[in-house]
Structure formats: C-alpha cells, structure tokens
Amino acid sequence: MNQFDLYGLRQHFQDQRILLCFNGPISRSLIEELGNALKNYMEAERIEADSITDVFGIYIEMTQNIRHYAARHGYAENDAAATVVIGTDERGRYVIEAGNRVESTDGKWLVERVQGLAGMDAAELKAAYKQQLRAPRDEGGVSGAGLGLIDMARRASEPLSANLQDDGTSRSFFSLRAIV
Q: What is the largest CA-CA distance in the chain?
C-alpha cells in the first residue's frame, strides 16, 4: 500500500468543509459510533437542537437504508460498502450525502422517486407522509423509499437530490444529498 498524503487529504477536507467522511463496509455498530461522533461534534459547536436532530435523523436514515439494501440483496462486503460525507456549505448549512452500489433498475427508480419528492412543497410532503403511513404494509413485500425518504425530504431545508452513475455492469452507484 502506498503512503497517503494525509496532510493533503486534511487540507482537501478543510477546503471542502467536510466534518465526517467514511468509505467502506457499514455495520449497525459503525452507524451508531459515527452518529454519536456527529452528535457530539454538533453539541460541542452549540448547534441548535432541532438542527442536530434533523442532521442526525437524515444520517441514520441514509446509512440504515444502505445497510438494509445490501443485506436484502445479499451483497458481498465490497458491494455492501457505503460512502458517507457530512459537511457544511458556504452558507453554514449541513450537507449530508451518502451513496452505495445498487442494481441499476433500482437506482433509476430511486432517482425518479427523489425527483418526485423534490417537486413537492411542505404541505404535499406532509400529505404524502400521512398517506404512506396509512398505506397497508405487504408483509412479504420489499420495503424501501417510503416513509424514511419522505421524512428526509421533510427535514431538509432544500429539496433532496440524487445521482446515479453507471459503472458498466448491472449495478450503478446511487448517491443521495440532503441539506439542513
């Protein structure tokens, strides 16, 4: 393995205002530990409790979705990896981004779902959330991209955005971005 330019990486993170970055296989305990580190950092910076709750909630939802998706598809460790970045933008808002490899057809559907939610205002998102909450659950069916995605859209201060990058196989890299 080559020696990393940690100083250069550190400078890049600072220039990009990155607070937390992770890339690799993600477990429930790792999600919890990174979440605790994120909350502790935000509390130490005396960030408003509502913002901490929103950032933490979105982070948890994104990472758990990645973990559940990989498990549901029986992905090997390399394909079950997640990339998570949390930072701030030029206006001081928190940016939460997470991505993982998905089946390309699932990724296309997810991007469309996010785009649909992005076109909704607060009242429409609230109504969609209530409708999804009341919808009967198919015990044998696959869950995903339902309440959690709508909840993230409701917590975010701007519409969610998603991206899908084809990797030349039947899978693509899906990424989701939320701003609080």
A: 54
Cα 134–chain centre separation: 25
Tell me: the pLDDT tens digits for 64-108? 999 999 999 999 887 889 999 999 999 999 999 999 999 999 999
CB atoms within 10 A of CB 126: 13
The whole-model pTM stands at 0.89
For residue 158, with 0-12 CB atoms within 10 Å meaning exposed, 13-18 middle and 19 or more buried, which class applies?
A: middle
Which CATH number do you get for residue 93?
Answer: 3.30.565.10
Is residue 62 one of the residues assigned to a domain?
A: yes
**Angstrom distance (rounded) from CA 99 to CA 38:** 18
Spell out the residues 6+ positions from residue 42 whose beta carbon is closer than 8 angstroms to its own.
51, 52, 55, 56
